[in-house]
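Need a sequence for this fold. Nothing fancy.
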């Protein structure tokens, strides 16, 4: 990648956290490209979104080979080069599994696809390496030893510094750790999972032993439930919105919003809006993002944005994180009514109601 540096990174007031057990520092809020960058957003607007993020303390950008069949990686790589950012200032992550073509070896986590897929991703982005390479899904048709060995090969080649998982079960992550330990290889450091106020079971309960035993951190996706937690869908589907633009992909969600289950979610969003506005002086968007960021196992919350203004708006959540006192968190729980049941204690008191089990 060209080293013509036009703009040095200034973290401003962005807090940084370790990515899981690693020494890599990531901003509490990062930016991703699913459906947006290279998808519904192309050309100069991609540059405006990345530029505004970078100028506001975001130096971590997430994409995947499968996003817009590789166009997300192409657009992100092009823009980063044009903006003249120093490579060492950036944390760039991509993900392998879904591929850009449908051939028998163009997807999944075989050694062949991990190695060829990495090379193709780097070529699309115009980069020599990514910081973290994610396995975008588990591949039950490839032996775990092959997966762990292939990610280690990629790391040894210098094409990625770390590897990580996305939407793997706790059992899958355990297996990867055991295989890596047995072979004296590097295990995954993070899990890219869905986590938001309306989706909690896996990130808060299933992964609890993984956080405790291995210190795995999360790079959270869809913290706003694709926009539902902004309140923009409270009174129908705005034409200029993700659910309208991708109505096929979200058809189950759209259908559920007309049913009792979806309406109950909308009611929760409305009640959270009242809480945010009256007690915290913020929007429900800021509250929802701050709530995920506050979780002790969250390394970074990956923001999604179709416009630069959304990035700027969403970063106001940083001011809300310290306002989430135990009292406010209890009020949130009273609205959500979906806190995962703690692990069985057989009559003994739980150790920590807010953090690790
Ligand atoms: N590993 C995985 O399997 C996986 C899966 C999904 C996502 N991800 C990663 O996580 C990133 C974030 O996920 P996501 O995009 O689903 O996050 P999200 O925050 O739940 O949704 C982002 C969308 O919500 C709307 N929005 C955001 N801020 C807003 C605001 N302030 N006001 C009104 N609307 C707002 C925008 O859509 P509109 O303006 O178009 O309505 C935006 O594109 C992705 O880009 C990707 O990098 C990973």
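Here you go.
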């Amino acid at each position: 990648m060209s080293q013509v540096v036009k703009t040095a990174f200034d973290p401003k007031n962005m807090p940084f956290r370790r990515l899981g057990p690693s020494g890599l520092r990531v901003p509490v809020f990062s930016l991703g490209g699913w459906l947006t960058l290279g998808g519904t957003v192309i050309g100069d607007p991609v540059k405006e979104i990345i530029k505004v993020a970078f100028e506001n303390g975001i130096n971590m950008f997430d994409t995947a080979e499968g996003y817009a069949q590789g166009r997300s990686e192409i657009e992100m790589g092009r823009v980063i080069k044009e903006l003249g950012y120093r490579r060492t200032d950036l944390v760039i992550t991509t993900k392998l599994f879904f591929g850009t073509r449908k051939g028998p070896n163009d997807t999944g986590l075989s050694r062949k696809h991990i190695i060829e897929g990495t090379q193709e991703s780097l070529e699309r982005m115009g980069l020599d390496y990514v910081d973290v390479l994610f396995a975008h899904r588990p591949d039950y048709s490839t032996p775990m030893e092959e997966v762990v060995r292939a990610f280690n090969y990629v790391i040894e080649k210098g094409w990625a510094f770390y590897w990580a998982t996305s939407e793997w079960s706790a059992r899958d992550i355990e297996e990867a750790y055991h295989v890596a330990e047995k072979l004296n290889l590097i295990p995954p450091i993070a899990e890219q999972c869905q986590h938001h106020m309306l989706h909690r079971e896996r990130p808060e309960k299933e992964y609890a032993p993984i956080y405790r035993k291995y210190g795995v951190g999360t790079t959270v996706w869809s913290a706003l439930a694709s926009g539902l937690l902004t309140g923009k869908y409270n009174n129908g589907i705005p034409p200029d919105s993700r659910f309208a633009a991708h109505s096929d992909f979200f058809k189950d969600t759209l259908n559920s919003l007309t049913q009792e289950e979806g309406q109950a979610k909308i009611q929760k969003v409305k009640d959270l809006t009242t809480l945010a506005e009256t007690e915290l002086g913020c929007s429900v968007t800021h509250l929802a993002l701050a709530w995920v960021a506050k979780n002790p196992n969250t390394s970074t919350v990956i923001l999604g944005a179709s416009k630069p203004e959304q990035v700027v708006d969403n970063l106001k959540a940083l001011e809300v994180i310290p306002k989430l006192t135990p009292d406010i968190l209890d009020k949130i729980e009273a609205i959500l009514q979906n806190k995962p049941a703690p692990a069985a204690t057989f009559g003994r008191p739980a150790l920590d109601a807010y953090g690790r089990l």
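For context: Strands lie at 16-18, 25-27, 29-32, 60-62, 91-96, 130-135, 160-166, 190-192, 217-220, 298-303.
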